[in-house]
Amino acid sequence: MDAILQILRDEGYSVSNELASYYSYVDLWKKWWEGYVPLVHDYSQVILDGSIRTFKRYRMNMAKKVSEDWANLLLTNKTLINVDDEVSQQYLAGDAVEQNEGVLGDNHFWENANLLVENAYAAGTGAFVLRVKDAQLKSSTLIGGKVKITYIDDAAMIYPLSWDKGEITECAFGSVKYIEGKRHLYLEKHLLTATGYKVVNEYYNYEQEKPVKVAVPEGLIEEFQIDCKLFYVVKPNLANNIYKNSPLGLSVYANSLDQLAACDIAYDNFVYDFVLGRKRVFMNQDIISMKDGKPNLSETMETRLFYSMGQKMPNENQLFQEYNPALRITENKEGIQTALDILSANVGFGQSRYSFNDRTMTTATQSKLSNKDLTESVAKQRVMIEEVLKGLVKSILWLGRNIIGEKVNEEAKVTITFDDSMFQDIDAEKAQFLQEIRDGIRQKWEYRVKYFGEDEETAKSMVQQDEEIEFPEAE
Question: Burial level of 123, CB count in 10 A (0-12/13-18/19+)?
Fold first, then answer.
């Protein structure tokens, strides 16, 4: 948003032209995610009367599909965030398995985080920003309140102020708010200090083209100091080949725009072959009853099927002639599949992610073995997600202990367990694990840790209490 860039410049922040121009790429990637890019999806043709008409292509909207798939591979409600401190775990997420309570539950984390990752992978950048709702300011220190997670899912509202090797250390976040029906611009700046961060909140009346600074709403603290980082940026783990030194991320399909266009062009041709390939019957006027000089066809007759040729049929004795154009279904499907294969490989999924004509199913084991590229790409992207989640949890626990007064441990160990069910045959793995217990290679408590989600101490305790676990007999 140009208005925020101008505000930052007016306040003395250096915003390079190179960084400012990078937001034009963000806008383009967002258009692809939305599914409509005028330069690609609008096209003109000269028709028979010599006039020019504009048409819109039929679209597959693969940019959104790719972004959704990446989000579902990286962060869903099947992802587990565990803390090795029971009080901290309860405060963060409730129990260790469902994780629908605590701070995460109150902030609808799993649904919103998945959507954030989707948008971040589409437009290049997203962010989690922590705030303390209803806190009081005493002696420049926040006290009380409750943790609120804000999901900044629009890359155009993230403005890096300082960064080091791509890591953003200071940042401004913008959003449009409405107060009493009037549009306002909210700007939240996180500025690095010697001991932590200074957070500055600003409001601007945005009814006119040039925003005018106004007082912040009642209840919002204008400025405070805090010894904890409150924002964590999410972006694809990809080298930026558009602006190498950009702190903003690169869309996961930034280098696949031609392939996205190819998918839509191929699909548009596929659909139009059906539209233009409609059966036609050309008829001699002599077999059509006329009324007031016009053909009198039954109201129930499919009139689009028939075309009057007057008396100029190819054969003067011919009364009608059928025309059945070839639809080229096979060729079109092969063209679409080729475009999908190239796109899939380009965005890190390997060539076998999408199938336009495959009606067969493969097992998870087969999928894993046949798509090494996908598993390697997922592992690479999860490095970034894991780092962000651990940092976010540490900050939530710090706020809980130092601001809100909860008896949690911000130094507790945080473990992120990703959902790998799409790569695994769980039943086969469990059977193998049980066989290894029978063979004496593993202990029963290890099974409870892995598949019941218990910590080691609890699992051992349950086994010692002679809880019966029935193991199937080996075949």
Answer: buried
Q: Which residues contact 392 (CB under 8 A, 6 or more apart)?
A: 128, 130, 149, 232
Taking a C-beta distance cutoff of 8 angstroms, is the pair 381, 77 a contact?
Answer: no
pLDDT at 58 over 70: yes
Q: Could you write out the DSSP letters of every residue in 12-55? A: T----HHHHHHHHHHHHHHHHHHT--HHHHEEEEE-TTS-EEEE
> Which residue(s) pair with 178 in the sheet?
183
Q: Is the dihedral of CA 165, 168, 169, 171 positive or negative?
A: positive
Dist. CA 104–CA 245, nearest whole Å: 34
DSSP character at residue 200 = E
Burial of 421 (0-12, 13-18, 19+ CB in 10 A): exposed
Please report, as a single letter, which amino acid is at residue 361. M
For the chain, give the number of residues.
Answer: 475
Q: HEC states along 99-164? A: CCCHHHHHCCHHHHHHHHHHHHHHHCCEEEEEEEECCEEECCEEECCEEEEEEECCHHHEEEEEEE
Phi then psi for residue 416, to 5 deg, are -105, 125
Question: Residues 170-181: what's their mean pLDDT?
Answer: 93
Residue 142 has pLDDT above 90, yes or no: no
* Confidence at residue 299, expressed as pLDDT on a 0 to 100 scale: 45
Per DSSP, what are the bridge partners of residue 148? 131
Radius of gyration of the chain (CA): 30
User: What would the pLDDT profile of 415-451 be if each residue is shown by its tens digit?
Assistant: 999 988 777 667 778 888 888 898 889 988 888 888 7
pLDDT (tens digit per residue) in 293-329: 565 555 434 455 455 555 565 565 555 566 666 778 8
DSSP single-letter state for residue 401: I
What is the pTM for the complete model shown? 0.81
